[in-house]
Specification:
This protein has 3 helices and 4 strands; from the N terminus they run ββαββαα. The chain has about 140 residues and is an alpha+beta fold. The strands form 2 sheets. Strands 1-2 form a two-stranded antiparallel sheet. A two-stranded antiparallel ribbon has the order 3-4. The termini are far apart.
Amino acid sequence: MRLFSRGPTYCAVCNKEITHKHKPKREWNIKGSLCGNCHVDKSKEYFEAKSRQPCAQCGITKKISDLWEPRWQWDMDGLLCKECFDKKETSHKNEKNFCSVCGSKMGFIRYNPKSKWKMTGQLCRNCWDEQKAKSG
């Protein structure tokens, strides 16, 4: 008798029924659980750098060991090459440290725009007040 009447689980690669689920890494691009054998095989591929994958932004194909995982704040899938990672890092720092309207350096208190304003980044107090007066 299965607890809470769960059905059998199958491996996403070889389609065998599995008793113990292994979670694949995000960069493997596999949806679902893996059996022990497939998980070991994929781990070997990844750590021996046999597999190649394109950069999520520029599309240049490189070994997985040469690609960088994006930061969680960027909310993106895939891996980035070093150049794209550095560009994304500087643009994120600028977006975080400077007002997106006037470009002034942000202080300790920052204001997030309302979703109906359709703006990205954060605002200083003056720009937030002006935008609030315009669109409410």
